[in-house]
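Write out the bound-state structure for magnesium ion.
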Amino acid sequence: MALLPANPQWRSLVLLAIIIVVLGVLPWTVNNYWLRIATGALMWAGLACSWNMLGGYAGYINFGQSAFFGLGAYVTAFLMSDPFGLAFPVTIPAGMVVTALCAVIIGAPTLRLRGAYFAIATWAFAEVLIQFSSAMDFTGGIGGIGLPPYLNERFFYFAMFGAAALTYLLTWALFERSRFGLKVKALRDHEPAAEAMGINTALVKLQTFVLSAVTASVFGAIFAYWVTFINPKSVFGGDITDQMVVMVLLGGLGTLWGPAIGGVALFGVNRLIWMYWGDTAFYIAILGTAIVLVVLFLPNGIAGLFERRKQNALDKVLDKLVGSGEGGHP
Amino acid sequence: MSGGMQPAADPILSVRGLFKHFGGIKAANGVELAVGRHEIAGLIGPNGCGKSTLFSLVSGAVMPDKGEICFDGRAVGGMSAHRIARLGLARTFQIPALFDNMTVTENLLAAAAEGHWRGASERAAETLSLLKLEHVADNRASDLSGGQQKLLEFGRAVVRQASLILLDEVTAGVHPNIRKIILEAIARLREQGVSFLVIEHDMEMVRNVCDRIIVMDSGRVVTSGAFEDIVRNSEVMQTYLGHPQ
Ligand SMILES: Nc1ncnc2c1ncn2[C@@H]1O[C@H](COP(=O)(O)OP(=O)(O)OP(=O)(O)O)[C@@H](O)[C@H]1O
Ligand SMILES: [Mg+2]
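---
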């Protein structure tokens, strides 16, 4: 890459500037079909990043992140349709508040326990929401809710772009460049030691979880308005969480750019398969195979291939999940 | 048993009637001890007598069954570990408990992250130079040698500006050069007013560093006093330290 400066910091900045410029002019250079794919890629990059906040940086596996994506989607759909008919922008903070409350209720008791309890609790929460939204009238039951259509692809592209950019900026500032990030990574690597240094690990985990959940809810809100129709499976479905997990593992657990790389790569594969074979279960098989390959051959993900300093966040996450190592609880 | 010299009237740490049983194992079985301000107290005793457990109890990592723990004038029994730590207590782990995926510098910064954050990076740099770890500052903690890991474990306690530091066998199995660095650092911190409770198996180190020795056996303190008094008592030496004079 002779065109790029040698200094790694400058090189990242130049790369970042190129990406931003390309993403900024994209809506005027491609047709709506490709623009929709780009919008989806940005959404998945953002969602993967939201999952990585807790899963990668703190080491706690959330198997129910779709719950928060879906809460954002349902709150927006509910408030925008009759009888409320609220404007889209005001529904986003409403979804964030509902999501934050739910995350506190789920996280406060379970994040104190071994990671497996938290994983099961989050998974169960997403399942409960599927059943609940399928059964209730105000959520439209299995049929779901339709939203007032707004057929402006560029608007949704920039909404996803803005949300994703904010998500990555926040992640960089908070987890890579601040005291808070040090505390989060410390508790991932050794929880009793972090406590011994004065870090309130239960609180830091809860804060990270709420942040991660609220971020996912914003993408859910934009998604609902974008697709103009949602139902329980389409926003709470377990496959949504599965994809986030695989994207992060593939891209690089606990890294800034890993989720973006994994998100774009996997969503690209998803669209390719869809183009050639339509809606098939083939994609699920690819997801499963990707997990196995990553765990076996690429524990640091794609981003790990470029890192000077190798980390192994996966070890710590597995420790927390099964409680075999020092990363667990005293 | 020899009463020996006792710490001053206003100890920084005092433990009374402390019990902790793990199933049938009586790891703490009525521990009584005190550490004076500016004192370096040595804690010795055979393997499995409950020394490390005492550290875990005092630092809040393990909850006591019963008993009183008073740190710096405050009852801390039953308090969570991070709250006790914020009161000014630091401890090291017998098996280094480093933040493996973080660099040496990041380990020190994380240790300093609660409390006096202002000036934390200067203190991290000072600690690096005090412990002669500058050349590995950007290395991942898990890539360090065993001795360097012990140094970093010690460094994380130092950087926190604690008033009492509990050291659990920090010099066990390290090269004499690293041991020397640690001993010099302890001496310097003591001059600055830091108190220490030091678990140590090496009698040479205990003699050189500690003002007073506390001897434990089977979950309780059996005696305490000056090194010479303890050594003179050959019964103690034989029973608890396993090598008569
Ligand atoms: N979490 C625990 N669960 C069960 N038993 C424990 C636990 N922690 C310590 N013990 C037991 O308590 C006793 C005291 O252990 P401790 O580690 O305090 O000894 P020690 O004096 O530090 O020994 P050493 O000199 O070998 O480090 C041992 O029998 C140990 O097996
Ligand atoms: Mg021990």
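---
Chain B has a mean pLDDT of 90.
Chain B has nine helices and ten strands.
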